[in-house]
Fold this sequence. Notes:
Blueprint: H1 7-17, H2 24-28, H3 33-46, H4 55-64, E1 66-67, E2 72-73, H5 83-95, H6 104-113, H7 131-143, H8 152-162, H9 179-191, H10 200-208, H11 228-239, H12 248-257, H13 276-288, E3 297-298, E4 303-304, H14 305-310
Antiparallel strand pairs: 1-2, 3-4
Helix pairs in contact: 1-3, 3-5, 3-13, 5-7, 7-9, 9-11, 11-13
The site of ligand 3PZ has 9 residues, from helix 13.
Amino acid sequence: MSTSLVAPLHVAYIRALGDSKNELSYHLSAHLRMNAVYWGLTALLVMGHGDALDRDEMIDFVMSCWDEEAGAFGAHPDHDAHMLSTLSAIQILLMQNALHRVDVDRVVKFILSLQQPSGVFAGDAFGETDTRFLYCAVNALSLLGKLDKLDVEKTVAYIRRCRNFDGGFGAVAGAESHAAQVFVCVAALAILDRLDEVDQPTLCWWLSERQLPNGGLNGRPEKLEDVCYSFWVLSALSILGKIAWIDSGKLEAFILSAQDTESGGIADRPGDMPDVFHTIFGLAGLSLLGYPALVDLDPVYCMPASFIEKLGLRKGWKA
Ligand SMILES: COc1ccc(S(=O)(=O)N2Cc3cc(C#N)ccc3N(Cc3cncn3C)C[C@H]2Cc2ccccc2)cc1
Ligand SMILES: [Zn+2]
């Protein structure tokens, strides 16, 4: 039977996440906390329930993760600043209309300090590089209105080195194409107005090949379907105006089948344990498919489109 979206259950699931402080899993995921708050808040906003979590408590948490020495945000109080948590912090503050709390000059300095000679970005001072961190840097600088501080040519040159013959992109130059890296490279190029760097027909064919008979999308050939790829693949197709190249009805049914209709939340595939990561990326996929009663999500920034419009950063993405 075709399940519909049980939004009230997902709202309750996300609200309850903050209550499980006495469980080991809560403490094991401390390194993810800032990202998890961004995932939870964005999921609530997409469902039209942005007020379901306490605004002041959330802003206080974000500011408690400020790393004074680095001039950026860590994932948890007393954690070192990292590119992933710094972007999530900026996105949370923007969605809570509290961007004025950010020391923009220090954060911009932190972000630019992580660009490597090759043009790729590291996640933190320890140096692991990945096109994911390049996307975080471009996204954060553009939300802060500081893209003029970026060496765009050097950044685009690195993305070009990551482009493969299948039209896709990998985590570093020479790495195999993977849907999550395709998203970060296409979205970064979109922000920089350099989508001319993409071999669009070849890439959109590769992306459409991600859809399996069960309607779900995988991240690479021969891999299993997974709800989070609904966002990675669909946002890239949306940016390139080719959502019609996959079967929307079958993908929608797959995402809805991965809901936990007892306790709420969405899992990576039907029957697995839900988590906040797959909940937001399943909802984001449904929003990009135009699922009724969901708020429009911007495919590049993975935030409600209204916030991106307000900053004058919304491009005219074709569906
Ligand atoms: C459950 O084992 C894990 C494994 C890794 C991680 S992680 O490295 O922190 N991370 C974030 C993440 C968060 C949650 C949640 N809640 C669940 C999974 C998941 N993955 C793993 C995953 C998702 N689909 C398939 N896989 C294997 C992605 C990963 C990388 C990532 C980080 C930030 C932004 C995007 C992607 C967390 C939990
Ligand atoms: Zn997944």
